[in-house]
Amino acid sequence: AQRVTQPEKLLSVFKGAPVELKCNYSYSGSPELFWYVQYSRQRLQLLLRHISRESIKGFTADLNKGETSFHLKKPFAQEEDSAMYYCALSSGTYKYIFGTGTRLKVLA
Amino acid sequence: DSGVTQTPKHLITATGQRVTLRCSPRSGDLSVYWYQQSLDQGLQFLIQYYNGEERAKGNILERFSAQQFPDLHSELNLSSLELGDSALYFCASSVSSVTGELFFGEGSRLTVL
Question: Mind listing the pLDDT tens digit of every residue in chain A (108 residues)?
Fold first, then answer.
């Protein structure tokens, strides 16, 4: 069965510190992985997807098929990065599932 | 606004009642997804439609049903409501039926008393 696990509900870091939001997935095929972000009072929106290999707002994520992980990283956190982050998986069976989310708080 | 629109934004009702949540996808998007977000549960996938046809089903209760109409808007019907159905219900749309970026609405907050 498909599953996305985000082990941390809350992650607090100081401004300028590195950030790593963990995401592990369970799927036997070749999934497409995404990170979505929800800033305060805004809609949930796509941050990045693994196939594009882009860096968005300084965030990167590498798909590690051996460890079935897709962790989100940023070398230097900014206060405006404070938000709710969701890891998501899309499979060929059309199901698009999300993890439980991690709230990132960047402290001044 | 050509984004995903959901109505109503807020809804308060009693146990045992029935409600309908409505979603209009972005212009040009054929696929609609419904999600339920309860406290500490993240986004639970309920169901997906593509161009009027059901394409995938998640953990949707039998008391819940959905459909997508010819004009591509979708409705989620929740019946025999229970206290535990109180949640934020999100609709999202995408161009593709298979994968790609989802565009979310602001959600409909349902409170069952």
Answer: 788 999 999 999 999 999 999 999 998 778 889 999 999 989 999 999 887 777 889 999 988 989 999 999 999 999 999 999 999 998 766 678 899 999 999 999
Contact across the interface for A45 and B48, Cβ inside 8 Å: no
Q: For chain B, what is the HEC assignment? A: CCCCEEECCEEEECCCCCEEEEEECCCCCCEEEEEEEECCCEEEEEEEEECCEEEEECCCCCCEEEEECCCCCEEEEECCCCHHHCEEEEEEEECCCCCCCCEECCCEEEEEC
- Note which residues in 75-94 of chain A have CB less than 8 A from chain B: 86, 88, 90, 92-94
